[in-house]
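Hi W., the beta-D-glucopyranose complex you wanted:
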Amino acid sequence: MNATAKKLVAGLMALTMGASLAACGTDVAPAGNAPTQESNNEAPADNKGGDKTVGIAMPTKSLERWNRDGEYLKQQFEDAGYKVELKYSDNKTDQQNNDIQGMIADGVSLLLIAAIDGSTLSQTLDDAKAQNIPVIAYDRLIMNTDAVSYYVSFDNYTVGKLQGEFVKKQLDLDNADGPFNIEFTAGDPADNNAGFFFNGAYDALKFYIDSGKLVIPSGKKTFEQVATPSWSTDTAFENMQNTLASFYAKGEILDVALCSNDSTALGVAKAITTDYAGGNTPIVTGQDGDIANLRNIVDGIQTMTVYKNVNDEAAATLAVAKSILSGETPDEGLVSSLGADATYDVESYNNGVKVVPSYLLVPYVITKNDLQKLVDTGLYKWDSDNKYLESTAETT
Ligand code: BGC
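Structure:
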């Protein structure tokens, strides 16, 4: 994150809808009680929803995390007394525009949008603005429009930085002789987050790349060269297969496959499992805590994931939405009631038209040794053999 970004760190704070949410910090286990997973038919005492409907636009059901986001958001907003119109748009930008247009026509009071392509919603959001419907960009920034009021996400640069710093520590880059070989796999260029993740990781390792201790045999060192449209597992698999065939076919050692998230890590790990001849087990990074990736972590095929508690993200979003719908103007004062560690940032996220005030939650690293931390969030449970994790959510 921008060094000058305004930061306020909230402690373990007030909770939304009776759900006791975990406070967490970098490398620190979430503490506290598990969030309530059952839906609560009785509206809580602070029910302010009234007749208001909130429109929630999620990108796709094909990437695991958005199923969780949709479920947690719906549950939390309904528990707070709001009606919810939730749409998934199959990763198609036209469909997402249509879905949001439909919500505007239905007279929603507020829109929460995780954009498929952050730059394709300007016209639709002009319509929302014309009807005084506030818009919160959820997780991904919406670009080129002044119709977006707030952004709720995680500190995206820190996600990448945690991946890079993990590699630095695992390889002991300050002391080991090296050189070590690394390949990058980044995310969807249409997703504003993807560049933040890549830059955070690259910047953490740049010193060692520049000094030659880390080598990129493929030569692919820019975001554009390693981006993965739609965050596709299949594309990440094919790209890694090609890289292995072109640069590692003679038994050259791959030490690190730095993947920006879990859907891409899944493809990369599969390519390594099937096509890599080097004999060692490369470090593979990820992000999200998807169930398939947590299995790979148990099986030693993926090394870590950067975890973002999306139940906390939903709670923070509810707090911002409630404040807006009560006629307030949320600012840094709201941080203390977000229910999780967060920063208020009014500098880092410029969408091309304005700097969007942002509430950014704190991600942290999970390895095979700390899977219990995920169980402690209440969002995961051990399977019957106590070996792999399963989701406690209904739809994942
Ligand atoms: C999210 C990540 C996710 C990726 C693909 C990004 O915008 O922040 O958590 O892995 O999209 O779904």
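Residues 42 and 79 are 7 Å apart (CA to CA).

W.
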